[in-house]
């Protein structure tokens, strides 16, 4: 594989040790699965606009498409392994929000989803992912090796982006479409009080 467009940090990322979890038939309908842990952050401004990032062309995986505000994987270390109140995942999200967008983060509501995503002939993703909700005005300083650009979008603008992606005019990550259609549009009118509309103990098979 040609990796001339990658910087040193991107080349090192596949060496990171992720957390793997076995999902039995009692948790997700279907056969037992071995999934790695992941997370996605959906970040709204106080004007209720959603932050979409475009992944850098220098990314090791899925370079270039539009995606949710932030996503990555908790690492296999004591801090990010902690299960209580999803603290390990929150610490991982803080780490990646700083690395990608240059911002700290401290207010999350969570639900859990599973992603089974393919990208192209090279990359795919099979994971159980926590979905972290944030509503806050933030100042960003993105790392260009992580983020090509970012945009705050209204519901209508996000629908238009997904429509253009379906027409092949732009690219979005496959898990972003799942998140948007499965959760974002349902939550959007309730971002002022999201708690009644999430079930943190439910695993969604998507």
Automatic annotation (TrEMBL):
Catalyzes the 1,3-allylic rearrangement of the homoallylic substrate isopentenyl (IPP) to its highly electrophilic allylic isomer, dimethylallyl diphosphate (DMAPP). GO terms for molecular function: isopentenyl-diphosphate delta-isomerase activity. It comes from the Eukaryota. One of its GO terms (biological process) is cholesterol biosynthetic process. It catalyses: isopentenyl diphosphate = dimethylallyl diphosphate. Transmembrane segments: none annotated. Its main location: other. It is found in: Peroxisome. It is an enzyme of class 5 (isomerase). InterPro entries: IsopentenylPP_isomerase_typ1, NUDIX_hydrolase-like_dom_sf, NUDIX_hydrolase_dom. One of its GO terms (cellular component) is peroxisome. Pathway: Isoprenoid biosynthesis; dimethylallyl diphosphate biosynthesis; dimethylallyl diphosphate from isopentenyl diphosphate: step 1/1. The keyword Methyltransferase does not apply. Residues 34-178 form the Nudix hydrolase domain. Its EC number is 5.3.3.2. This is isopentenyl-diphosphate Delta-isomerase. Belongs to the IPP isomerase type 1 family. It holds the Pfam family NUDIX. The keyword Cell membrane does not apply. Keywords: Cholesterol biosynthesis, Cholesterol metabolism, Isomerase, Isoprene biosynthesis, Lipid biosynthesis, Lipid metabolism, Peroxisome, Steroid biosynthesis, Steroid metabolism, Sterol biosynthesis, Sterol metabolism.
């Amino acid at each position: 594989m040609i990796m001339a467009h990658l910087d040193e940090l991107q080349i090192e990322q596949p060496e990171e040790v992720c957390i793997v979890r076995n999902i039995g038939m009692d948790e997700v309908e279907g056969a037992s699965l071995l999934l790695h842990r992941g997370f996605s952050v959906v970040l709204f401004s106080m004007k209720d606009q959603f932050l979409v990032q475009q992944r850098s062309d220098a990314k090791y995986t899925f370079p270039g498409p539009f995606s949710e505000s932030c996503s990555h994987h908790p690492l296999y270390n004591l801090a990010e392994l902690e299960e209580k109140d999803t603290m390990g995942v929150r610490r991982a999200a803080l780490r990646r929000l700083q690395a990608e967008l240059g911002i700290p983060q401290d207010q999350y509501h969570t639900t859990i989803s599973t992603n089974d995503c393919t990208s192209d002939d090279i990359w795919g993703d099979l994971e159980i992912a926590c979905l972290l909700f944030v509503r806050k005005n933030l100042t960003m300083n993105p790392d260009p090796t992580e983020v090509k650009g970012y945009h705050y979008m209204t519901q209508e603008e996000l629908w238009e982006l997904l429509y253009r992606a379906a027409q092949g005019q732009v690219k979005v990550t496959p898990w972003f479409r799942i998140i948007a259609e499965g959760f974002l549009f349902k939550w959007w009118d309730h971002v002022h009080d999201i708690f009644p509309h999430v079930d943190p103990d439910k695993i969604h098979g998507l």
